[in-house]
Amino acid sequence: MWVDKIIRQASDDYIVINDSKTPSGRVHVGSLRGVLIHDALYRELSAQGKPALYIYGIDDYDPMDGLPADADPAIRQYMGMPLCQVPAPAGSSATDMADHYISEFLQIFRELGVAAQTYRMRDVYQGGLFNDVIDTLLNQAPLVREIYAQVSGSHRPDDWYPLQVICEQCGRIGTTQVTGYQHGLVDYQCRPDLVSWAQGCGYHGQISPFDGRAKLPWKLEWAAKWHEFGISIEGAGKDHCTKGGSRDVASAVLRRVLRSQPPVNVPYEFFLVGGAKMSSSKGLGASARTMADLLPPEVLRFLMVRTDPKKAVNFSTDAPYLVKLYNDFDRLLHNMQQTETEQADQRLFASARVTADDLPYAAVNFQLLIALLQIPHLNAEQEVAQRLTAAGYRLTEQDHAQIRARIRSARYWLDHFATDEDKFSIQETLPETAQQLDPAQRYFLHHLAVGLVDTDWHEAAIQTRIFTAARHTPLSQAQAFAAIYQVILGKAQGPKAGALLSFLAADFVLPRLRALPYAPVDFVRQVGISPDQFAQQLTQSQAEMSEIQLEPECYADTAAETSVYYAVAAVRYVCKGKTHIRRLLLGTVHEPDTTARDQMITSMLQRHIVNLFNDIDYVVKATVTCL
Ligand SMILES: [Zn+2]
């Protein structure tokens, strides 16, 4: 696992892992990647018995430099003030805006079992924890300016000092500039034109920069945290880790001014979100909360930690992506329940589960759940429990809780992300759209109904029957499934057909399969092939064919002025253990007398097959079947 390489680089006796977040709006799901990468590192260190601590900083002393997407425009007047000084939205129980946004995020920490201990930058500054660093950095301002110029190529004027004071007149922090430092006091001005997103009041003053009256620019704040908290490992999004970027500046300041070593970096790639509704601004948006509502905690953790931080995660709310994600996780659960489990799986499971007490559980297929939840009058939890019990599971209380969690996930997905194609409803009567089915599909449905009469009403048995009926028609599998979906759902796609039919009562399904009339002669005209065409197929697959039976069939076209009868040879054979049927059009007969006609058809069949099967054993059925 990727954690090993990082842990090997951290040599401290006591390892402190840090991550942080500025609560300037609803937290995006991408922020969870850092949280869980660090948590996985912490868990691994703990598992190895190494003393470690995971701390998570809430950067609530940062200025509000943009209006949160969901905020009341009236709070624009607070732009430039520390986030912890901006009022919470109306109706929120939070003490301030920073608290409002971070509370939702920290609730997710609890749900995911993230073991971080949080701290707020307002407490760090106001508690005087950074007083010494602030004093050092102000005294070393020329060196700090030199580092900025050398590392990032940004040149600061000689009267620039690395600090921002909270303006005594207007309360803004983003608009102030310190221009001098002596005898423990800074000179500062609150400039109307310093930044584009906030306007300073123009005040000039002199003040002590300690105990929360000022904060460091964030690159230096980063270095200050590393120095003061003795941080050993801290990853960052790759956008911060470019050459000459903020990480480089912070590291250089730490080494050259504060005289300590930067932590081990874990540069991580982006967490990208696809799926129309998730990425659109009009939908729910890709907030961490939405993600935690969509996925059960262990699946969300699995999603975040299974991928090496160096690789991007391209998440999507589309059905195929989610089904695969769940299937991948369920394979891990399955592997964990074997007598011997590979170490890689054990460690992945250890970093995915919410608590150390969580055991691998009986997983229920996500795709199946999506179908179950759309079947009227069906108790999904009961149905799933029955199926798992029948498969040999002895369900524990934890298993039941997990089943309920997964049902909530599937329900949430159906309500918020499923497209019209994903959704279906069982049609109470034969849908009008089913009329478009062709004669072969209609025959297939009738033939399937016959086969299902004495089939055990279980998913696997029904699915097998469907494949058999398709081979007997013959009809491609896609065409066969489309026919079933059309008569049951009134649409061309649907969930796994065997599963779908198994949830419905046989006395609903069978009449529905027979409901669409079909004319046998139309069917045979569509699927019938000439003996020559069949002869070509024979040369390819002859060696694999066995148990060949020929059945003479007669299809009457009574629509014609005088009835026409199609003479057909139904060739039934076994190939790779499966029976197939091909219908050969031998010719037409105009004989109204049944006995004479049957004789004519039998002799036509004999004539043809002598040529076709000269070297192969076969059996001919004596009686003619009329359709
Ligand atoms: Zn001001």
Write up this protein.
Among the domains are: 432-518, Arc Repressor Mutant, subunit A (Orthogonal Bundle); 521-626, no CATH class. 43% of the residues lie in helices and 15% in strands. The chain contains 24 helices and 17 strands. Strands 13, 14, 15, 16 and 17 form a 5-stranded mixed β-sheet that branches. It is elongated. The model has no long low-confidence stretch (mean pLDDT 92). Bound molecules: zinc ion. Residues 167, 169-170, 172, 190, 200-201, 203 line the site of zinc ion.
Summarize, please.
With 627 residues, the protein is of the alpha/beta class. It contains 24 helices and 17 strands. Helix 8 links the parallel strand 9 (236-237) and strand 10 (267-268).
* Overall shape: elongated
β-strand amount: 5-15%
What's the main sheet like?
A: 5 strands, mixed
Distance linking N and C termini? 65 Å
pLDDT < 50 stretches: none
Total helices: the number is 24
Structural class: alpha/beta
Q: Count the beta strands.
A: 17
> Ligands bound here?
zinc ion
Helix residue percentage: 40-55%
Q: How many whole angstroms does the radius of gyration measure?
A: 36 Å
Any descriptors?
three-stranded parallel sheet, 24 helices, Arc Repressor Mutant, subunit A, elongated, five-stranded mixed sheet, about 625 residues, alpha/beta, binds zinc ion, about 15% strand
